Amino acid sequence: MSHLNYETRLPLGQATIDHFMGLPAHPTKCQATYVWIDGTGEHLRAKTRTINTKPQYLSEYPIWNYDGSSTGQADGLNSDRYLRPVAVFPDPFLGGLNVLVMCDTLDHEMKPTATNHRQMCAELMKKVSDQQPWFGMEQEYLIVDRDEHPLGWPKHGYPAPQGKYYCGIGADRAFGREVVETHYRACLHAGITIFGSNAEVTPGQWEFQIGTCLGIEMGDQLWMARYILHRVAEQFGVCVSLDPKPRVTMGDWNGAGCHTNFSTIDMRRPDGLETIIAAMEGLKKTHSEAMKVYDPNGGHDNLRRLTGRHETSQADQFSWGIANRACSVRIPRQVADEGRGYLEDRRPSSNCDPYLVTAMIVKSVLIN
Ligand code: ADP
Ligand code: MN
Ligand code: MN
Ligand code: MN
Ligand code: MN
User: Fold this and answer.
1) Are residues 30 and 131 in the same domain?
2) Which atom of ligand 1 is least distant from the CA of 210?
3) Looking at this predicted complex, what is its ipTM?
């Protein structure tokens, strides 16, 4: 695998790394990397501990703590916050018995912190479990260097206009495929339900899809897939931007979303299309409420992206259509043809919290 940006790597010899990482693993101990959402509601943090015997079940992973005053989740005088394990994945970076542990965060009274929307989401998913809510999320992102300059873009001026990059092949149109391929394999190793990946419309922009996932698993898996992506990029000396419209792309370039596909058991039945169309009423009713939680900044991030141009709808209007990519919600052509399937909510921003988005969809369609 080539280095995308070699000068940003530490000058350690690969042979040295290989020596230590290749030493026989400890027979029983494992390294558990606890991953959590910080006070931005957008960025992840992680720290690692040894567990003497690799647990068999989630419930055997201990609750842990961290300094919430350093993550925007507490003040210094009362800084301890708790990490509660909610999902465990084989660690594709360390391999062996080692694991990645997705956690939600609790305050000193064991109540969810301000950016912990998982507990609320999990309760909601339990309530509607008889409807078997399935989700699939399409995570778009831009690969950038540490100065936030998109990969493959000239340092001065702009690349050739968009048109040739979407699903593009070749060194003049696909930038950072090493990151994409490595991430894909790493997700498979971790047991994440990765559906696919493709190069996107803007140069340096890519997408992976997670799904289908049942209920709360959607959020757990997408957050962990994001963690893996940031870590893979780190190893190549590049970064991943989930900003829906990075400043450098403000001209005639597509922004980044996180389309959220959704179905219930009724929508998947032979005459499911009726249920899918009926769901539009509920989605329309909650439009302004939804727009506030479809990005981590109260809807402000999405205002830059949902302009009605570049395959988006307008932020202030709800619309739906069949095979229409300028709508808030799209019914894919194939779903309309088959008369059953799922709908695609195109409004969530690339930096959305999937716990908030999936909860909002369930609330709109199944609770109201
Ligand atoms: P697009 O045509 O919008 O680019 P993609 O191929 O990128 O679509 O993604 C399709 C997504 O739809 C995947 O995440 C997949 O898991 C999801 N999906 C497929 N069938 C269903 C279903 N019945 N319910 C919910 N999600 C689904
Ligand atoms: Mn310390
Ligand atoms: Mn897609
Ligand atoms: Mn896309
Ligand atoms: Mn889509």
Assistant:
1) no
2) 14
3) 0.98
